[in-house]
Amino acid sequence: MKKLTSILMVCTIAVGAFASCGDNDSKEKKSKVPDISGKWEMDDMGSYDVDGGGLIFTEDGKGSMYVDVSSLLYMEEDGLNIGGMVLEKEYITYDGLNFSVNMNDMDMLTMKKTEQTDADVYDGQYDLVSGLLTDSLMESLTENLSKDKADIDLDLILEGQTSTVILNNVLTYTIDSKNITLDGYAELVGEESTDNSFEYTLDGDTLTIKNDDETLELHKAE
């Protein structure tokens, strides 16, 4: 009986040791998968005729695209500059949370700030709600997507004389030690390719992904 007990104890210790080794191996393998969450600037924005942009990856496997639209619109001291034409502040209603531009009873732009600020602070992030300008941005930035436009969430970030539109959660991604899969990316940028799997290399703040169809280089922005 004592002998059997001793054998069981040895087996238990051995199993625990092997399990521990397995956990360490698993952790070691897991540690080799890089954390790419954050904002990445792209050298090539494909079919988008914008000032720049890139991708934003979150830790939960979702991805958004951001585009710099500063040449199309931005806030200045006298009002909202749209393609060089300034809509003066008399047409703007803003209380630090709700922002609207109305001309002759026409909704040009309605959006809501994600966080309340003072009424003289225009910088910040807004949810685009409605208006001709919102519809125009939605149409031009999502024309390649089969997804219902009502299900697409657009945000606008104003910062000085720069403005950025974010297409929230328009793709998903998975990554391991060698490959990254970008589901929805090809459709997003208007490509016919069905190959959404890429090999990648991460060198400091530069992420290079490639497959047989293309090579993309992204640089960490935030």
Could you characterize the architecture of this molecule?
The structure is a single chain. By secondary structure, the protein is α+β, with helices and mostly antiparallel strands. 20% of the residues lie in helices and 44% in strands. The strands form 2 sheets. An 8-stranded antiparallel β-barrel has the order 1-2-3-12-13-14-15-16. Mean pLDDT is 83; it is low at 1-19.
Beta strand %:
35-45%
Query: What is the count of DSSP helices, taking H or I runs of 4+ residues?
Result: 3
Computed over alpha carbons, the radius of gyration is 25 Å
Name the overall outline.
elongated
Task: Reconstruct the topology from this structure.
Blueprint: H1 2-31, E1 38-42, E2 53-57, E3 62-68, E4 73-76, E5 79-82, E6 85-88, E7 92-94, E8 98-103, E9 106-113, E10 124-130, H2 132-141, E11 153-159, E12 162-175, E13 179-183, H3 185-188, E14 197-203, E15 206-210, E16 215-220
Antiparallel strand pairs: 1-2, 1-16, 2-3, 3-12, 4-5, 5-6, 7-8, 8-9, 9-10, 10-11, 11-12, 12-13, 13-14, 14-15, 15-16
Task: State the gist of this model.
This protein has 222 residues and is of the alpha+beta class.
Output the keywords.
222 residues; alpha+beta; 8-stranded antiparallel barrel; 3-stranded antiparallel beta sheet; elongated; disordered N terminus
